[in-house]
Write a structure and sequence with these properties.
The structure is a single chain. With 309 residues, the protein is an alpha/beta fold. It folds into two domains: 226 residues, Spore Coat Polysaccharide Biosynthesis Protein SpsA, Chain A; 69 residues. It has ten helices and eight strands. An eight-stranded mixed beta sheet has the order 7-5-6-4-1-2-3-8, with helices on both faces. Helix 1 links the parallel strand 1 and strand 2. Helix 5 runs parallel beside helix 8 and helix 9 packs antiparallel against helix 10.
Length: 309
């Protein structure tokens, strides 16, 4: 059993959520008042297009000792925004949650209780019934299945999570441009617990994760954190060579023993197949090289435009 936390930090990445921020802060304030635990609320505005930053500044003016307000200079994405917030957390535990009220603040004590009782480094709040569209649920299942083959992170993760401060420090030690919190966390610990929580319908009209953004996230994870595709290229190359060899032997036998005239069909098929494998391999290797180039250029994870501590 771990010690009771002296203070808890809550990091919320914000994007076009001005309509719900007051209510969200009110619910978080109520929860921590009930459990009598000091807290720090870190809002990271990911360069919203609405007046979210004005709302955050107003909340900050009303609760100056409890709110840390950060506005990024451009849109960097949810995980990069969370990573930015991690740098300013002062709590023994750090909780991350979405800004659209899907994660009820009333469920925060469940995460804390599990962490204290089990001593877990990471606790996920998961639900048996995510209230999202059928298309989004289908894509999420596909995402989990396919990333399980190429990622070391748990396939049952959630953006509603609690992390020990020691784990947070390890995560922010990385400086690659693309950040995926769950993958980085899995590099450092297997002491992970799961708690069933309620999942509400989003209070915002539109999802900030469009199909194109989900696909970009997927490819960033696949290319950014493992070499699975490079291994596939190796196996593909071996298979291609073996198949081409068999095709060659087949036509050679037909020519020698059966005196069958060998046309251009076999040659064309072999060349087309081999060329396709080569082009695919070059494309995959090129994507890895592009990302290595970005790392060498030290592209930033985030850039802060304004901060109110």
């Amino acid at each position: 059993m771990a010690e009771q936390p002296k203070k808890i930090s809550v990091v919320i990445p914000v994007y076009n959520a001005s309509s719900v921020l007051y209510e969200l802060q009110k619910k978080i304030e109520s929860v921590f008042s009930e459990i009598a635990t000091p807290y720090q609320l870190v809002f990271v505005d990911d360069c919203s297009k609405d007046d979210s930053w004005s709302v955050i500044k107003d909340i900050k003016s009303k609760f100056p000792d409890k709110i840390t307000a950060i506005r990024l200079a451009k849109n960097f994405g949810q995980h990069n925004a969370i990573s930015c917030g991690f740098h300013y957390c002062a709590g023994d535990y750090v909780i991350t949650m979405d800004d659209d009220m899907q994660h009820p603040a009333e469920e925060i004590p469940k995460l804390i209780k599990c962490a204290v009782e089990t001593g877990a480094d990471l606790v996920y709040g998961i639900s048996d019934n995510y209230k999202r569209s059928m298309a989004r649920n289908a894509f999420s299942r596909l995402f989990k299945v396919t990333t399980r083959m190429s990622s070391t992170s748990t396939s049952e993760g959630s953006s509603f999570r609690l992390l020990k401060k020691s784990l947070v420090k390890k995560i922010i030690s990385h400086n690659q441009q693309f950040v995926f919190i769950d993958e980085l966390a899995s590099w450092y610990t297997s002491n992970i617990q799961f708690v069933n929580v309620t999942h509400n319908t989003s209070a915002l009209k539109e999802s900030r994760y469009t199909g194109s953004k989900l696909m970009r996230l997927y490819f960033n994870l696949v290319f950014g954190y493992n070499g699975t595709l490079l291994k596939i290229i190796t196996y593909l190359g071996i298979s291609s060579s073996f198949i081409s060899f068999l095709v060659g032997v087949f036509f050679l036998i037909k020519k020698i023993f059966f005196n069958v005239r060998v046309g251009f069909t076999g040659i064309v098929v072999s060349i087309t197949f081999t060329a396709g494998v080569i082009l695919l391999s070059i494309g995959i290797i090129g994507e890895y090289m592009r990302r290595m180039y970005n790392i060498l250029n030290a592209q930033p994870q985030h850039s802060i435009g304004e901060i109110l501590e």
